[in-house]
């Protein structure tokens, strides 16, 4: 999944074709609704300040691997204040148990 705002770059044929070529699904915020992009912006802020190497990455593969590791950490381990300190996966599992 690749999420962005509706900037002209993200809507261009070259960019959308590239996203598809890499096997991704493109998602865009609704026009004029900044709240659509807020969760993604929050994720990127957390990634940059908590995880990303200060000097960047030496190659694309290293960056991809590091993002994969952070996604797993963010969803399975990292405590989230919104979820009363639970990771998203644990919060979802707990919520489902409470409903059943």
Automatic annotation (TrEMBL):
InterPro entries according to UniProt: Integrase_cat-core, RNaseH-like_sf, RNaseH_sf, Transposase_IS3/IS150/IS904
Domain (Integrase catalytic) ranges: 1-96
Any Pfam family matching the protein: rve_3
PANTHER family found in the cross-reference section: TRANSPOSASE INSF FOR INSERTION SEQUENCE IS3B-RELATED, TRANSPOSASE INSO FOR INSERTION SEQUENCE ELEMENT IS911B-RELATED
Name this protein carries in UniProt: Integrase core domain-containing protein
Organism: Basfia succiniciproducens
Lineage: Bacteria, Pseudomonadati, Pseudomonadota, Gammaproteobacteria, Pasteurellales
